[in-house]
């Protein structure tokens, strides 16, 4: 059974995308098509803030792109050595909060210890931060241009100071239409399509509707998390599955349940 995932392919230590592997264990033939590209913003300003950990109570990362922005700042400003010698340890003396294990693994690669990765989404992470945070200094939150407001609002309501800086924005992947057309002509209508962000949905839905025609009603739509599920519902699409956590295993289990012939 063929399933389509609208995300970038990313190989793990085994040399295979973990989503393809997990879905394969259930007998699904998964294909990945990227729908988003990214451009980075405000890196000089962000780099300056990273150089002054004493001004902040900690860091919040809710996406791998925000961590990539840190890496770019270190490379562009030749700060890799000073990061290793002093800045890294100064930030590690503070809390570094993250959403999801994928983001946590990239944060770990730049030498930072993380907490909160098992929360799974921004709302649960906000609850976790609120239960632990007592610093009078603001948490530094590098984020995308279309960041959700749930986490900032929850922290504000609890009086926890936070300083956000937009370090990237999502743009449509240039190959969306061509890649989707090739997939449909070669593979046909997929049994399921998974969306990984509201932006990815926005950029790809029109093409999927055109290519699927009336057959769109037979596709089971899945979301990687509650924010994306809400976006699907807002577009009038039935959500057959929302992954319990943003992980390959949880998504594969959810899609398997959604595609069982006698679903309750």
From TrEMBL:
Residues 19-252 form the Tetrapyrrole biosynthesis uroporphyrinogen III synthase domain. Pfam families: HEM4. It comes from the Eukaryota. InterPro entries: 4pyrrol_syn_uPrphyn_synt_sf, 4pyrrol_synth_uPrphyn_synth, UROS/Hem4. Signal peptide: none annotated. This is Uroporphyrinogen-III synthase isoform X1. It comes from Ceratotherium simum simum. The lineage of its organism: Eukaryota, Metazoa, Chordata, Craniata, Vertebrata.
């Amino acid at each position: 059974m063929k399933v389509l995932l609208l995300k970038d392919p990313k190989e793990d230590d085994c040399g295979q995308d973990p989503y393809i592997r997990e879905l394969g264990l259930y007998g699904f033939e998964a294909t990945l098509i990227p729908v988003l590209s990214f451009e980075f913003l405000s890196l000089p300003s962000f780099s300056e803030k990273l150089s002054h950990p004493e001004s902040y109570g900690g860091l919040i990362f809710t996406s791998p792109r925000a961590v990539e922005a840190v890496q770019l700042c270190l490379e562009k400003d030749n700060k890799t050595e000073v990061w290793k010698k002093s800045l890294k340890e100064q930030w590690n003396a503070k809390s570094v909060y993250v959403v999801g294990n994928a983001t946590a693994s990239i944060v770990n690669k730049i030498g930072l210890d993380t907490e909160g990765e098992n929360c799974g989404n921004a709302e649960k992470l906000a609850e976790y931060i609120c239960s632990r945070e007592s610093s009078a200094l603001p948490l530094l939150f590098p984020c995308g241009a279309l960041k959700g407001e749930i986490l900032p609002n929850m922290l504000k309501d609890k009086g926890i100071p936070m300083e956000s800086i937009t370090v990237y924005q999502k743009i449509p992947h240039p190959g969306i239409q061509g890649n989707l057309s090739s997939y449909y002509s070669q593979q046909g209508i997929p049994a399921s399509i998974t969306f990984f962000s509201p932006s990815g949905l926005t950029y790809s839905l029109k093409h999927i509707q055109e290519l699927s025609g009336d057959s769109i009603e037979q596709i089971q739509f899945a979301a990687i998390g509650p924010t994306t599920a809400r976006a699907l519902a807002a577009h009038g699409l039935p959500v057959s599955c929302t992954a319990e956590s943003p992980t390959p295993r949880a998504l594969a289990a959810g899609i398997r349940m959604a595609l069982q012939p006698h679903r309750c």
